[in-house]
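So, can you check these tokens?
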Amino acid sequence: MAGAYNADDHGDATFVLATLDGVRAHRWNFWDTTSVPGMSEEDVDRTVAFVRENQRIEGFEPYPAV
């Protein structure tokens, strides 16, 4: 589907930075994402691992490694 999100669009570091620093909306006409206060580095790593595992389960491969 044209314009749909692809699992390989963003590397793990992009998820980490978005979680820690937030990110400006740039792909669709939605809103900026703010940082997630109180998340430890371990929390962020576990969240990224969860997302990647579910992408794999749902067939969204390949995805970029760290």
Remarks:
- The radius of gyration is 13 Å.
- Residues 7-57 form one domain.
- Residues 12 and 49 are 9 Å apart (CA to CA).
